Amino acid sequence: MRVLTRLAPVALVAAGLVGAAALDERSTATDAVRFGEGDRSPMPAAFPADALTSSWFCPGVPVGPGVSSRVSLLNLTEADVVATVTVHPTGGRPTTVAVTARGFARTEVALADAGAPAGHAAALVEVAGAGLLAEQVAVTPAGRASSPCATAPSPTWFVADGASTTEVTNAVTLFNPFPDDLVVDVTATTEEGTRASKALQGLVVAPRSLRVVDLGDTVKAKERVAVAAVARTGRFVLGRLQTASGARRELAAGLGAPAPATSWTFAAAPKQNGLFTRFTIFNPDPTDAEVSLTLYPAGGSPGSNSTATASGATPAAGAGNPPIRRTVKARSSVLINLAELTEVPDGAYAAVLTANAGVVVERVLAAGDGRAAVQFGARAAAQRWWFVGAAGPLSTRITVFNATGVEATATVERVGPAGPTAVAGIAPLALPPGGSGSVVFEGPLADGPFVVVAEQPVVVERLESTDQPPAWSTSSGIPELR
What we know:
The protein is mostly beta strands. It is 1% helix and 51% strand.
């Protein structure tokens, strides 16, 4: 039986790794620096083992004909767990179902079967104790999106990457799980600046309900739309719903970020023909921010003699790259497209973005055939990460970034009736300092669930691929923070 523990958010890498192109090989896993602001959880994380109760807030997905939307639950313990799942549809009353999650098993709850009418629906998952994880999954003709649900509401939420054009529909979901009215002010920042449209101010969300706000009603023909949403009182959960149907085909349905942060890490940032990697950096504050993007070759930091042994982790040419620096003006956003950085050789990288003030960062991954997916960076590192998953993907790539200045080994296991189990043919990843590696699961193994266990704090993400429809979905895993 795996026991959940809590790990205080540590630096994704030692100070020398974050702030410079080279790792300080003398740094250890005990070099800890907190990031993220205030008492808000930096990202969804597993609850500690001594938690009396735990709740997961799934921000909202489409529901209706031709759509498969569900909440996936993963029981990390041997004993069966009974969870209460309350579905909150737009324009309807909440419905509650009791769900038995079998030990070491994944249970998928279809929202339509749980009483959600056509439209959109959010979900609240409640359970006594800890040991249960939750993700929301949506599959529509536009694509597939899998995302961890939130572990806490917040008074503020942010989205960095978005658009509102004839080929892109862009909305946010405002989920109020509490018994009091909620009033939210939403502002949209475009390439022309920040708009505090009256139509987006003072939005009332009734108790225990979901409200979908179509940004296209007020923000039209903009290639860049970032969002900040602030509750006048109380807390809520914000999700993003974006569908792209042009050259970039994408369904984005997941959580916003509850707060800006000074460090964002992505385990994968490839630069090669046929792959497009772009970072969108949003500064919601009234003062300018200085941002540095540092790319770390999969083969490790400069001076390391080790290379990652996982399939798909090709060491990059060269001995590392100097940080790419940008100034992000107050209440504006900046794009960094790796394809435009001629000084960066092709290769597989991890990426760390740091700033002197809180910013919000998302990465877009796109393929030459138009499949695309957007994801927030990780704001914590941990030694154990979970992926709940759901039926459907043809392949899943799990990428692990060694977020320390010492060597590490990580294993990727599949979770089944006997608990986490090694998969035949999948060797442990030997990760040099600042290095990364990946494992690909195909066919019946691709839908997980998975757990990654490492000797040192790491950052882990997944890329799911499907062909019906042709789509990508990316997300961070769910870390154990002790």
